[in-house]
């Protein structure tokens, strides 16, 4: 016997889940063995733990081999094979453990009909909170992960649905990960046929929940989540949306970017195509994914632009459609702002993207969440002299919308733009500032913490603060 392990709390109820002997990952062809429960001492039980009748000369004490409690003969008369506990012969099991135990025992049968009864029966029972807890205590979670190896479509469906139900309980995430549930879900996705829609949707939904957890995201990547998710990005839109939502969580880890962009599964063109979807939620998620991908290397940003140019500049089209969902605009502006950091030799093909964000500056001036990214995009573009003439046409909005913004980040980006323009076209910019109001520019510069000190230090590099008499 071993210690019970770590308690779990679900809907206000605390309990100890089942543990396995040795390796905790049960998604394996090798059957697992559960740790046997500690037997309750005879002296601890005055009455049966099931029917509550007191023990006496006629009502004798027995131990349930599953839960370890002291039970009377009437409530513990059934003997059931318990291969999951390593027993060679059938053993006594109490009435409260009997049904779930029978289902778990059937999972070890070579008969597919018994395995199916086990999977579907356990999935049905976990819909009830009390039965869910009992299943977790008796090893039902481990059994369903173990059964996910099967090639039978209905068994796969039951396992996928059950794991999804488990995944909705955050308290079970660590247990699921240790038991190999993430690897099981990835395997289910890879093996599911096109007709197995319920299996696919439940499996990808589980994976999305796992990938939302900072603790489990890397585990999901290590367990092979990327490949099946990339495959599903080309599925029909309902499934593709779930896949894209999962992928957008995965690509928060920069180490996945090269695999996504360079895969031979035509995934990048598919993601870009989805930015033109009629479903604005799909647009939002596709643009979010691309915005993450644009954060890594110069080479990846070049690839994104090449693919978008080949597809007819869908990034710009997504903005021109004037979506009602402002998060679409935020994600598009974020993506364009990151792309604007391409090196100077690659800026020549970005004129239309610059015009797009400049138009957003005028059209969405009251949306600070959008303008936060738009201001960064224009500031990044303004670093390069090639863009100066186009940006000068929008100086009025740069001053009135950015420099007068109550949001610090927006004001600071506005100052970046003005300083770049002054360095590229001093005379024209000075004239524009005199016309539009130089006070806002000076106030913006002075308002940025550390800027005045940095300017003083830069000046002192060229002129001394101390000098010999001459």
Structure notes:
By secondary structure, the chain is mostly helical. It has helices at residues 95-106, 112-125, 129-138, 140-147, 153-167, 173-179, 181-191, 197-212, 214-222, 226-232, 237-250, 257-262, 267-274, 280-293, 298-310, 314-320, 326-339, 351-363, 368-382, 388-392, 395-403, 408-424, 426-436, 438-446, 451-460, and strands spanning 8-10, 13-15, 61-63, 70-72, 78-80, 91-93. The longest helix is centred in the last third of the chain and has 17 residues, at 408-424. It is elongated, with a radius of gyration of 32 Å. The model has no long low-confidence stretch (mean pLDDT 91).
What is the structure about, briefly put?
This protein is 58% helix and 4% strand. The protein is mainly alpha-helical and 470 residues long.
Mean pLDDT score:
91
Roughly how many Å is the radius of gyration? 32 Å
Largest sheet: number of strands, sense, barrel closure: 2 strands, antiparallel
Intertermini distance? 93 Å
Strand order of the largest sheet: 1-2
Care to count the β-strands?
6
Shape: elongated
Helix content: 55-70%
Which structural class fits the helix and strand makeup?
mainly alpha
Compute the number of helices.
25
Q: Runs with pLDDT <50, length 5+?
A: none
Strand content: under 5%
């Amino acid at each position: 016997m071993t210690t019970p392990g770590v308690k779990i709390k679900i809907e206000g109820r605390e309990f100890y889940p089942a543990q396995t002997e040795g390796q905790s990952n049960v998604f394996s062809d090798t059957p697992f063995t559960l740790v046997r429960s500690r037997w309750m001492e005879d002296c601890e039980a005055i009455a049966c733990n099931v029917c509550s009748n007191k023990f006496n000369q006629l009502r004798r004490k027995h131990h349930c081999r599953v839960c370890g409690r002291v039970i009377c003969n009437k409530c513990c008369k059934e003997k059931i094979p318990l291969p999951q506990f390593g027993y060679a012969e059938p053993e006594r099991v109490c009435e409260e453990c009997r049904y779930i135990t029978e289902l778990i025992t059937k999972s070890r049968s070579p008969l597919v009909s018994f395995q199916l009864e086990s999977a579907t029966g356990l999935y049905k029972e976990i819909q009830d909170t009390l039965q869910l807890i009992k299943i977790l205590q008796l090893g039902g979670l481990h059994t369903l992960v173990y059964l996910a190896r099967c090639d039978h479509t209905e068994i796969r469906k039951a396992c996928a649905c059950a794991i999804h139900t488990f995944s909705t309980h955050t308290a079970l995430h660590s247990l699921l990960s240790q038991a190999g549930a993430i690897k099981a879900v990835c395997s289910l996705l890879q093996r599911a046929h096109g007709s197995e829609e319920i299996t696919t949707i439940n499996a990808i939904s589980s994976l999305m929940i796992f990938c939302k957890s900072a603790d489990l995201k890397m585990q999901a990547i290590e367990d092979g989540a990327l490949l099946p998710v990339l495959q599903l990005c080309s599925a029909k839109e309902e499934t593709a949306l779930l896949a894209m939502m999962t992928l957008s969580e995965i690509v928060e880890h920069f180490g996945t970017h090269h695999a996504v962009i360079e895969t031979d599964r035509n995934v990048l063109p598919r993601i870009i195509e989805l930015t033109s979807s009629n479903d604005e939620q799909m647009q939002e998620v596709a643009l979010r994914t691309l915005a993450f991908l644009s954060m890594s290397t110069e080479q990846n940003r070049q690839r994104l632009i090449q693919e978008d140019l080949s597809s007819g500049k869908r990034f710009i089209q997504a903005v021109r459609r004037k979506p009602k969902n402002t998060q679409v605009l935020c994600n598009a502006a974020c993506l364009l702002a990151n792309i604007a950091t391409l090196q100077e030799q690659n800026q020549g093909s970005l004129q239309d993207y610059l015009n797009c964000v400049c138009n957003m500056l005028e059209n969405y001036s009251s949306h600070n969440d959008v303008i936060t990214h738009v201001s960064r995009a224009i500031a990044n573009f303004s670093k390069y002299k090639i863009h100066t003439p186009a940006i000068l046409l929008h100086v009025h909005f740069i001053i009135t919308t950015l420099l007068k913004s109550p949001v610090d980040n927006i004001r600071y980006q506005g100052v970046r733009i003005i300083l770049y323009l002054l360095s590229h076209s001093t005379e024209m910019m000075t004239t524009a500032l005199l016309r539009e109001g130089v006070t806002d520019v000076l106030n913006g510069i002075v308002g940025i913490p550390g800027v005045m000190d940095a300017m003083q230090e830069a000046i002192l590099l060229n002129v001394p603060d101390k000098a010999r008499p001459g």
